[in-house]
Amino acid sequence: QVQLVESGGGLVQAGDSLRLSCAASGSIFRSMGWYRQAPGKQRELVATISSSGYTNYADSVKGRFTISRDNAKNTVSLQMNSLKPEDTAVYYCQTTSMWARDYWGQGTQVTVSS
């Protein structure tokens, strides 16, 4: 059974930093990443990282967010710097297993006040 456990959300001020972490278990994961959904908006990609370390970022977070993973521990982290009010959203950990099945975490709230 695949489980994703997220941590690290919270309320911060604009310009602050936060680090999100996600621990995955129950499978072998090809890709890991983070998505977010703001109120009234569709869920969108934030960043992904492959098992070999290839990264992909949304244009809106390039230069501010950094994704990393520990393959031995099956964890993925998102370091978010220079946060903006428009980064406010529920952030979801997402993984794709070696058998091409997607899994999602329960989500963690990130709120950035101006």
Structure description:
By secondary structure, the chain is an all-beta fold. Helices cover about 0% and strands about 60% of the residues. It contains no helices and eleven strands. The strands form two sheets. Strands 2, 4, 5, 6, 9, 10 and 11 form a seven-stranded mixed beta sheet that branches. It has a four-stranded antiparallel beta sheet with strand order 1-3-8-7, with no helix packed on it. A hairpin with a 6-residue loop joins strand 4 and strand 5. It starts with a strand and ends with a strand. The model has no long low-confidence stretch (mean pLDDT about 95).
Summary tags:
11 strands, mainly beta, single chain, four-stranded antiparallel sheet, 114 residues, seven-stranded mixed sheet
- The number of helical segments is 0
Helix percent reads under 10%
Structural class: mainly beta
Low-pLDDT segments = none
Quote the beta fraction: over 45%
Question: How far apart, in Å, are the first and last alpha carbons?
Answer: 41 Å
